[in-house]
Design brief:
The chain has 371 residues and is of the alpha+beta class. The protein has ten helices and twelve strands. Strands 1-3-6-4-5 form a five-stranded mixed sheet. The chain has a four-stranded antiparallel sheet with strand order 10-11-9-12. A three-stranded antiparallel sheet has the order 2-7-8, with helices on both faces. Strand 4 and strand 5 form a beta hairpin. It binds alpha-D-galactopyranose (GLA). The site of alpha-D-galactopyranose has 10 residues, from helix 5.
């Protein structure tokens, strides 16, 4: 049951902030190797209401937790509990470690970014909370530093060894321009989506939440490959270095090949967007999917099936898995105006044949009410 801030804390909120989930167009599993990524924001957002308190205590409530109750902790005494509050505690701990002075606060969280769909509900929470705290306590944080606080919360406190893509996307991206980000330097450029294109995101209904161990393994494999090749990170290699992979043991050779070829695909995708060459962009998405499926091995048959169904639609330029993998969602580039129809048709064919139901998340339909 949803409860208002006033019902929860007996007063009105002082600050409101929000932040979106993200969909990555291309550049998957490159951000912890110093590579390129190209995400956009999605319409679904996490919303925060907050009011300051005199004592260093945090009281927090989330509408997204079943049988939610008000959780509490003292600032400076953050301790992992393996639940949603770890993202909140992680952000306050990271801010303090970065030298920012906080006082206590009351917090209400609400979100329509689906959990486990590979669309960065965690980054949306970290970034929206950090935005609210920036405003409430007048913190000296720009949008990049704010994203880094979110990543630190997740790396150091939640214990997920993620890269910087999701927090940067949530902090800096919007729905109509792709954020072309160099994860090594954090330099970025916004590349508009051509007017003739529309993005579709379909959730496979298979939660990726069990994938933490696999993610860690892939990350370690990339680090091992870089070490054996004598470079700080795989992102330092180009396609002309591909011949060097012959010296690597299996599967490190394929992992490295994915990162190097994916980096090249991101650059080509940026060129395709600039030239409004949607068929070329589409081909790059299919190639990225094959590389993630065969070389990086982070796809699953249900996601492959969704991509295949999408490829059979005449209004589709290209499709691929998006996010960390092992479930979650696919992203499709379709003709403008055809997105909803394409999404509904692909989701229906998938749901008919399989045991799980797919959901079209973007463009949001009448059942996904977003205000
Ligand atoms: C997850 C991580 C990101 C990135 C992607 C894969 O979303 O949070 O940092 O590594 O997987 O591209």
């Amino acid at each position: 049951m949803s409860r208002s801030f006033a019902e929860l804390f007996d007063r009105d909120p002082e600050v409101r902030a929000d932040a979106p989930g993200r969909v990555n167009l291309i550049g998957e599993h490159t951000d912890y190797s110093g590579g390129y990524v190209l995400p956009l924001a999605i319409p679904q957002r996490t919303r925060i209401e907050l009011a300051r308190r005199e004592e260093p205590r945090v009281r927090a409530w989330s509408a997204e937790v079943q049988e939610a109750k008000i959780e509490e902790y003292r600032l400076g005494e953050e301790a992992p509990r393996r639940d949603w509050l770890d993202y909140v505690q992680g952000v306050t701990a990271a801010l303090r470690q970065a030298g920012h002075a906080l006082r206590g606060f009351d917090l209400r969280v609400e979100s329509d970014v689906p959990l486990g769909s590979g669309l960065s509900s965690s980054a949306a929470l970290e970034v929206s909370l950090a935005r609210a705290l920036r405003e409430a306590f007048e913190l000296d944080l720009d949008d990049v530093k704010l994203a880094l606080i979110g990543q630190r919360a997740e790396n150091d406190f939640v214990g997920a060894p993620v890269g910087i893509m999701d927090q940067m996307a949530s902090s800096l991206a919007d729905e109509s321009t792709a954020l072309f980000l160099d994860t090594k330097t954090l330099q970025y450029e916004k590349i508009p989506l051509p007017a003739a294109a529309e993005l579709v995101v379909i959730d496979s209904g298979i939660s990726h939440s069990h994938s933490a161990g696999e993610y860690r393994t892939r990350r370690r494999e990339c680090e091992q490959a870089a070490e054996l090749l004598g470079v700080p990170m795989l992102g330092d290699l180009q396609t002309q270095d591909l011949w060097k992979l012959g010296t690597l043991p299996e599967p490190l050779d394929r992992r490295a090949r994915h990162v190097i070829t994916e980096n090249a695909r991101v650059r080509s995708a940026v060129a395709s967007l600039r030239e409004r060459d949607l068929p070329r962009l589409g081909r790059l998405l299919y190639a990225a999917h094959e590389s993630l499926r065969d070389d990086f091995e982070v796809s699953i048959p249900e996601i492959d099936r969704l991509v295949e169904l999408a490829s059979e639609e005449p209004e589709v330029y290209g499709a691929r898995m998006t996010g960390g993998g092992f479930g979650g969602s696919i992203v499709i580039v379709a003709q403008k105006g055809a997105g909803r129809k394409v999404g509904d048709r692909v989701a229906a064919r998938y749901s008919e044949a399989g045991k799980v139901k797919a959901t079209v998340l973007v463009p949001p339909g009448p059942e996904t009410v977003i205000d």
